[in-house]
């Protein structure tokens, strides 16, 4: 007996299948992702999650961007020193649905960061979308741009140029490739007989034994390099114009600073209290480790928020005298340097300009964004000059918190905007939003400058973007339905997994991941299990008796 076929009319079903296939092919949207670093990798994944078709162009032969250490500085690429360690912790900076191994240390060096990127790329099969050794030389509007919003991307591979059309572009090239090297501000450097270079060119402390080194700037690079050189150099001088707040990577009870600081509870307080009180409290807390004024580091304008430097060793190097903090440089002569407090340091061998970076996008035909400090991007992503949201910058930001989780949320939001799943406001509203944000920025951080123009609050920004895609957790609802989780969401670290509990891209392990955050934080440091110290019964009894007696006495006195 014949079995009745499930599809009654095979021809009809075949036709339908082809129709579905064709209509599916018709709606496939091509996305050019420029760069395969921390932002590019998550951009590729987010495209795939949303059914978009990414093609990533990477100029070098590997993933990892700024975190890929190379012995030599490569033209056009970010470059790091060998001893670089992340200043945000693994639980706070990982991608939201891809935790770092619990055995990883809380703060990662470049080898571990690269291990993580490789795991991420392999797990989500991202490598096949990346074209390595491919330089993007030009991005311009397609002739049909006004109606389609499409882009033409020209690449150079093996000396051959090729142009393709894309529906969307995600710029993920970072902003640490082009050094800010203000030699114009130091014209006298021309007569300096020693060696001088930008911190981008620093790799390790070899070759500095017995030398006197001056470092200009007190950002993270300057402080890291000062600490490293202080072990070999004869003397390190750290010159600062405005001072800086230096704090430890670990905070209360030795937990990572960001896990302690970024909680929704503290965020609520911060937003409710006047910013003068928040600043006063922050300053007080930072000065509890060491009085910055006593170490010459106290910022001149403490009435504004600024990026902190996380460096556990600088304090001890200054205490030991191997690093000396100096004020701003006024004059550099053949062998000595003068400072604005009228002091002079003689016999300087090396000057390092740890003066940060500028952003630069040489591949645009027209100035999509200005390479100055007045950046006009809607939500730090979409250029205000473009009417259609078909090109976005991922990771063009310096959050006051972990970077990767921010880049990931940006990519999640952008891919949904591309698909038309998020409301995108008209240009007038965009301009108003940008103006309002700039006003707030000036109130909080002061006038935008090269070293702070991309600064952004952490939780506030993530919440803003995830609200749009429906991935922001509703704390009250969680407190009612799952109090333990609700408690952790509000009082615990605001980890990226918080944005994977609901909405598109929901991750089924998110709850468990959030609830076990502290376990994973202590795992890599608790390498020797310490048994709980049993309190002596006698002491417990004695303490209880004293308490009871005090209460009894207080009650009797009250009666009298
Ligand atoms: P940065 O944070 O931009 O700091 C630049 C420094 O140079 C500031 O102290 C600035 O002083 C000073 N400066 C700029 N122009 C100057 C001038 N004309 N004269 C004198 N001083 C001048 O640069 P960075 O330290 O290279 O850091 C770049 C980014 O990478 C930051 O986001 C940082 O957090 C990150 N980073 C992270 C790590 C890590 O994870 N361990 C390490 C290094 C860097 P003013 O403050 O007075 O403007």
Automatic annotation (TrEMBL):
Superkingdom to which the source organism belongs: Eukaryota
Pfam entry (one): FMO-like
Residue spans crossing the bilayer: 537-558
A GO BP entry: xenobiotic metabolic process
Cofactor annotation: Mg(2+); FAD
Topology of this chain in the membrane: Single-pass membrane protein
Enzyme class, first EC level, given as a word: oxidoreductase
Similarity remark: Belongs to the FMO family.
Name assigned to this protein: Flavin-containing monooxygenase
Biological source species: Xenopus tropicalis (Western clawed frog)
């Amino acid at each position: 007996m014949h079995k009745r076929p499930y599809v009654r009319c095979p021809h009809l079903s075949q036709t339908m299948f082809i129709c579905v296939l064709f209509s599916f092919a018709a709606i496939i949207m091509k996305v050019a992702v420029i760069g395969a670093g921390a932002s590019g990798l998550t951009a590729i994944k987010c495209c795939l999650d949303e059914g978009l078709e990414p093609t990533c162009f990477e100029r070098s032969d590997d993933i990892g961007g700024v975190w890929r250490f190379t012995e030599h500085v490569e033209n056009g690429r970010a470059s790091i020193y060998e001893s670089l360690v992340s200043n945000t912790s693994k639980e706070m900076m990982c991608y939201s649905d891809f935790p770092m191994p619990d055995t990883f240390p809380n703060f990662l060096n470049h080898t571990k960061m690269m291990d993580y990127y490789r795991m991420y790329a392999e797990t989500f099969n991202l490598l096949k979308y990346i074209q390595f050794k491919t330089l993007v030389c030009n991005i311009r509007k397609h002739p049909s741009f006004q109606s389609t919003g499409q882009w033409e991307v020209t690449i150079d591979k093996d000396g051959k140029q090729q142009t393709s059309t894309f529906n969307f572009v995600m710029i993920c090239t970072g902003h640490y490739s082009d050094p800010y090297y203000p030699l114009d501000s130091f014209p006298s450097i021309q007569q300096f007989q020693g060696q001088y270079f930008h911190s981008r060119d620093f790799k390790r402390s070899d070759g500095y034994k017995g030398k006197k080194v001056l470092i200009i700037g007190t950002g993270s690079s300057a402080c890291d390099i000062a600490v490293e050189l202080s072990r070999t150099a004869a003397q390190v001088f750290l010159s600062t114009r405005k001072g800086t707040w230096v704090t430890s990577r670990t905070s209360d009870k030795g937990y990572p600073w960001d896990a302690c600081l970024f909680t929704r509870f503290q965020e609520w307080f911060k937003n409710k209290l006047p910013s003068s009180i928040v600043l006063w409290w922050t300053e007080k807390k930072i000065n509890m480790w060491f009085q910055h004024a006593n170490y010459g580091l106290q910022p001149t304008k403490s009435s504004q928020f600024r990026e902190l430097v996380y460096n556990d060793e600088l304090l001890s190097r200054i205490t030991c005298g191997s690093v000396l903090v100096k004020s701003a440089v006024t004059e550099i002569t053949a062998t000595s340097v003068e400072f604005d407090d009228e002091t002079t340091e003689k016999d300087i061998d090396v000057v390092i300009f740890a003066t940060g970076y500028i952003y630069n996008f040489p591949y645009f035909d027209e100035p999509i964004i200005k390479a100055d400090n007045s950046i006009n991007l809607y939500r730090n992503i979409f250029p205000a000059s473009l009417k259609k949201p078909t090109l976005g910058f991922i990771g063009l930001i310096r959050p006051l918190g972990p970077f990767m989780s921010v880049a990931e949320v940006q990519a999640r939001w952008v891919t949904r905007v591309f698909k038309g799943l998020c409301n995108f406001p008209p240009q007038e509203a965009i301009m108003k939003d940008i103006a309002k944000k700039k006003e707030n920025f000036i109130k909080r951080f002061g006038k935008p400058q090269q070293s702070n123009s991309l600064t952004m609050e952490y939780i506030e920004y993530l919440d803003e973007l995830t609200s749009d895609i429906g991935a922001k957790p509703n704390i009250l609802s969680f407190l009612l339905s799952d109090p333990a989780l609700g408690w952790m969401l509000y009082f615990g670290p605001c980890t990226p997994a918080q944005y994977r509990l609901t909405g598109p891209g929901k991750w089924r392990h998110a709850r468990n991941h959030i609830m076990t955050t502290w376990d994973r934080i202590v795992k890599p440091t608790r390498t020797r299990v310490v048994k709980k110290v049993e309190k002596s019964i006698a002491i417990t009894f004695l303490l209880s008796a004293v308490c009871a007696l005090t209460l009894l006495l207080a009650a009797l006195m009250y009666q009298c």
